[in-house]
Protein: Phenylalanine--tRNA ligase beta subunit
Organism: Enterococcus ureilyticus
Amino acid sequence: MLVSYKWLSEYLDLSKISAKELSDQMSLTGIEVEGVEVPEEGLKKIVVGEVKECIPHPNSDHLSICQVDIGEEELSQIVCGAPNVKAGIKVIVALPGSRITGNQKIKKGKMRGEVSNGMICSLQELGYSDSVIPKAYSEGIYYMPNDAVNGDAVFSYLDMDDSIIELSITPNRADALSMRGVAYEVGAIYRQTPDFNDEVLKEDTNESAADYISVEVEDKKEVPAYQIRVIKGVKIAESPLWLQTRLMNEGIRPINNVVDVTNYILLLFGQPLHAFDYDKLDSKNILVRRGKSGEELVTLDGETRKISEENIVITNGTVPVALAGVMGGADSEITEETTTVALESALFDSLAVRKTSKKFNLRSESSSRFEKGINHATIGEAGDVAAAMIAKLAGGTVVSGRSIGSELTIKEVVVSVTVPRINEYLGTSLDEAAVSEIFDTLGFTYTLDQGKYTITVPPRRWDITIEADLIEEVARIYGYDNLPSTLPKGETVAGSLTSRQLLVRKIKSLLEGTGASEAISYALTTEKKSRQFMMRESLTTSLQWPMSEDRSVLRMNLISGLLDDVAYNVARKNTNIALYENGRVFYQDNDPKKDLPYEENHLGIILTGNREVKDWETKETPVDFYTIKGMLEVLFDSVGLADEISYEATKANPEMHPGRTALIKLNETIIGFVGQVHPTVAKEYEVPETYVAELNLQAIVEAENDAFVYQQISKFPVVSRDIALLVDESVTSQELIGTISKHAGKFLQTVHLFDVYQGDNIAEGKKSMAYSLTFVNPEATLVDEEINQSMEKVEKALVEAFNVIIR
């Protein structure tokens, strides 16, 4: 919301309060100020000029040589390229040595051989956006009013010496989306009552609005208030300069005197209005209803909109003429030929307006206010003031009465609070006099009975419904900075971490010890990315109103987010990357009884680039499957699950390399996967060869971990035996180690694979696997007979299970 300091000063005495002081005070009382801007800042030596003579440039087909009166004894010659420059108009002139927008300095010079003493400016060259400049002047220079004095600075005429305060309005304070709402707020801060000098309505009692038009509302719950006033005999023209500049400073493009009044009232009351050309309605009936499938409407922006049953439309009894609360139709817009105006003032269902606005991607000042809420008590008043202004500015006559389709009955909202309750919440020691003064300055009527306030909340503050809201109002106006600061009282207990928190911290420390850095990715992503790398089947959990398509669904994996992080780094030449993320994924079962998604804590790891960087004594070594698998083994060993973890090759995940991917099992339960990202997927993300792992961290936390048992180092020597096996290449090392461990006896301490060979002297389809077995007896020295017996059992079991050849 943009607030004009000059405009606000018309309702309150701000003569001793600067715009900067006002903005600081508003921020302290709960309405955040984004900034204060003075449009004329950075501009200088820009004055009013009058074009006395305008002739074509002899050496150009588009330039003109103008003799301009800038309030000096002699006329100043200026060469101008604007298509709408002509003699007899007053214009904006940048003198030699002046500065226009963009800190551009204007100098005296020559254009095609003719002297030019400055520049005749367009509004764009004074810093106005194309979106707010009147269309008549969007491609040329701006005409100043005839009563502007030649040589005067233009800034006061255009209200560029005003201070524009930008407010960041939270959804609960939609009352501040109007100048009247802001005036009440500022009045409360400075203990003033706003005085609104609204135009007084004068009606022609010879006719009534009902003679011109009748209104019917199909569903009064969706359209609680709808009324139309009729203004006849209007003459469409440009609005006066004060109204145009006021709208431009508020970010709205001036159109004509009728449409500009509706936008002015929108800003003043926060009440959206719409003006129809009465004659173009081709009907004396207005019907407000739901749209019908197959209906179409050409809106004011020239686009054809296909209407559905979820849209509320205004019709002439037969066909739609406007999208309720969003945008009017082009067939009934106000044009130069308009002589009679039908002025709509209404209240529409906020959800219906929001759906229509989203469907057609039409976000407007009107739709925003209907969505957030408007003052129900001023719907009719806003229409009356608008009708009076249109009659004044367009020379029309307001027909008496309103044609009403639905009318809202305002129900009083009464809320109670006591002084002790206020002080208990705020930690203050306010008395009744101080609290009464705050409610008085807020404009709240109340009764006080034995310390209890019964407040009748004004309709303009529809955000106040409970006791806590009143206490907040007292705190705001009293001043948050005046509330006392106190330390907590009472006994405290020592805090501690849960077992889950301890485990997660330990895992983070372990991964950082292996060289990985923590990453935090968005929980919202695209539907395609959310369904990649999934560890279980699930429905997608989508947002109803996403900010963008890239953030429209909840993730069901961590890897896609980590791949985005890697892509971001790789694009910036950071190619050696090791990241991990501890975060939640969101699954949803196809069960009508379970509406909400199920959250599961996961751990993701991603590696790419080199694990060893080339230097004078080390060769660069790229990461591979065993690099990331080694990180996982360190993790599992540290949390006491190494003996319960197994790996199983898989080709089931289409986003993973079919020959370099394994499922991770805790006992017989799959808790994750590890492997290389499929090359086609890596290409989509624009990353090099990348290895990833994702674990269900929740399953690890919930696993029953055996307590660590510390043992003395054996006093007796260990014995090592090697065994080399010729096996089918389909047999995994894990299967062989499992068989060895099962049959080697109780004295087996470790099994270590130290060689794998395929090639010359090895039959095709076979591989050689060499293991080192370590035995130790903590109570006695092992003898050869015991070791030989164990080895014989191992060899026999391997031959029976895998048909190996002992080499």
About this structure: The chain has a mean pLDDT of 92. The chain has 20 helices and 42 strands. The longest strand covers residues 44-56.
